[in-house]
Amino acid sequence: MSRATLFTVGHSNRSADELVELLREDAIEVLVDVRRFPTSQRNPQFEKGALQRCLALHGVRYRHEEALGGHRVPLPASRNLGLADPALRGYADHTRTPAFRAAAERVVAAAREARVVLLCAEARPEGCHRAVLADWLVAQGHEVVHLVSVHERVKHGLDPCVGRDERGEWVWRARQGELFGGG
Hints:
- It is a single chain.
- By secondary structure, the protein is an alpha/beta fold.
- The protein has a single domain, classed as Protein-Tyrosine Phosphatase, Chain A (Alpha-Beta Complex), CATH 3.90.190.
- The protein has helices at 16-25, 48-57, 86-94, 98-113, 129-139, 176-179, and strands spanning 5-10, 30-33, 61-64, 116-120, 143-149, 152-155, 162-164, 170-172.
- The strands form two sheets. It has a six-stranded mixed β-sheet with strand order 3-2-4-1-5-6, with helices on both faces. Strands 7-8 form a two-stranded antiparallel sheet.
- Strand 2, helix 2 and strand 3 form a beta-alpha-beta unit.
- The longest helix has 16 residues, at 98-113.
- The protein is globular and about 50 Å long.
- The termini are far apart.
């Protein structure tokens, strides 16, 4: 299987023009919306329909992959203890589901054919489900680059707490000091 390069971006409170400028800078051809609920009351320019229309005017294709969206609840027996935020832990648990895997495979396949960016709401990937998604993609051998702002790109490095468990599944393990209440 060949390696793919994927980009990520958060719309935050940018204007639609600012987002388009970011996409143009990296010749993005396909935007995959990885918000579970592609709406925004504070930024209506990023509501699904408005975003689709704007992107179409600039030659960028839009896809929504709900199965890659955040807002997940952790499993009662979650093994992803390296993620303190319950929503991120829930998302890491979700990476084991067939729906997530199928959606991730579709996105990777698209990235082998075109320049693909994964969009959610947060401007910076830290503390956002995009960081967990990026960890998962990097662990699979792909490259992920975060479009932070005009002229600022950050190559995603795998979180050191990510590793394989005894079944070969990727988990976000607690750091040694966190196991015993340290930091």
